[in-house]
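Propose amino acids for all 340 sites.
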């Protein structure tokens, strides 16, 4: 790929400091995605400029008009402090007719609502756990079709936000308590879905029309996995000390029959197309003890830090990180050029 002018959109607090090498290990971990992406772009000889975007669109327009980038690398996950507004930033970039990386606004909207995405993919015969949604301000009553145990999550947030061991509940009193916690702490509706005891599997998908499903990846719960009840809590996903204590690791899924691996990749692509995703996404499954892969959620624009699941799966498949970053740029340019 020829060198490009790349404008990176990120959160102001995620702007890497100039003294990156002087940061502690934890400090570098806090900026892992931004450091990874900026470093790869520069190694690929692209001219890079990063701006922090919080609650104003004008800086984006000013940079596009004045600096004239070839493409925008979108690392924003929220706008005005609201994750639901990230789709509006993508829409704004479309209105400015500038190529941008990651998912389009339709895919961002369809994949964010866990209830809507489950309804859409279940229509296409993808196994999905039974669930119920509990809006704020309404009486919390469990429908009879939803049986215990269930896991309670925020309806629209990702990155395991709000998920703890207390999220798995076994009775109506605990369900009411946890739903109330989601309402009050996170300010969103809650979703409760039947808990599937089993393995946590992820499939990364890269592409617009022609899709590439990456190696099936697994979140290995280490010494927590014995009873099959382990869940991907915030600590399991993001606390390095906790991961070390319990031997938790993220790695290629082991001992999966070839036909099951093929099925998982096929399902991931079907979900990707159903939810109108493009660019790149990660599809999360729970594999039950009897070998049924249940769709949990689709993560549009997942974390692509070099150390995270998506990039590691790509590397396992022979796609080096810097090549993956150029591929993401190429997909942005292709979508802009062809409208697909």
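Proposal:
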């Amino acid at each position: 790929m020829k060198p490009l002018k790349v404008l990176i959109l990120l959160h102001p607090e995620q702007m890497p400091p100039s003294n990156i090498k002087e940061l502690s290990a934890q400090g570098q971990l806090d900026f892992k995605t931004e450091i990874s992406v900026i470093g790869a772009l520069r190694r690929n000889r692209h001219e890079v400029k990063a701006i922090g975007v919080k609650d104003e669109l004008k800086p984006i327009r000013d940079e596009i008009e004045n600096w004239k980038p070839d493409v925008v690398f979108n690392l924003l996950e929220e706008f005005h402090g609201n994750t639901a507004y990230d789709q509006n930033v993508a829409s704004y970039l479309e209105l400015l007719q500038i190529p941008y990386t990651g998912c389009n606004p339709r895919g961002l909207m369809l994949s964010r609502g866990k209830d809507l995405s489950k309804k859409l993919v279940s229509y296409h015969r993808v196994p999905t756990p039974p669930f119920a949604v509990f809006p704020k301000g309404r009486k919390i009553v469990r429908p009879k079709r939803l049986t215990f145990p269930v896991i309670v999550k925020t309806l629209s947030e990702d990155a395991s936000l709000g998920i703890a061991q207390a999220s798995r509940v076994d009775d109506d009193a605990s369900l009411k308590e946890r739903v109330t916690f989601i309402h009050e702490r996170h300010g969103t509706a809650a979703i409760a879905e039947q808990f599937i005891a089993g393995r946590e599997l992820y499939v990364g998908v890269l592409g617009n029309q022609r899709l590439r499903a990456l190696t099936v990846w697994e979140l290995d719960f280490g010494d927590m996995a014995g009873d099959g009840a382990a869940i991907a809590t915030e600590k399991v996903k993001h606390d390095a000390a906790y991961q070390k204590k319990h031997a938790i690791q993220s790695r290629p899924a082991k001992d999966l029959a070839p036909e099951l691996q093929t099925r998982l990749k096929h399902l991931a692509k079907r979900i990707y197309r159903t939810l109108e995703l493009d660019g790149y996404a990660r599809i999360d499954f729970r594999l039950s003890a009897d070998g049924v892969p249940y769709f949990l959620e689709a993560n549009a624009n997942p974390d692509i830090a070099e150390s995270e699941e998506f990039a590691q799966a790509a590397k396992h498949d022979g796609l080096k990180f810097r090549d993956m970053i150029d591929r993401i740029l190429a997909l942005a340019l292709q979508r802009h050029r062809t409208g697909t």
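Residues 321-338 form the longest helix (18 residues). The chain has a mean pLDDT of 92.
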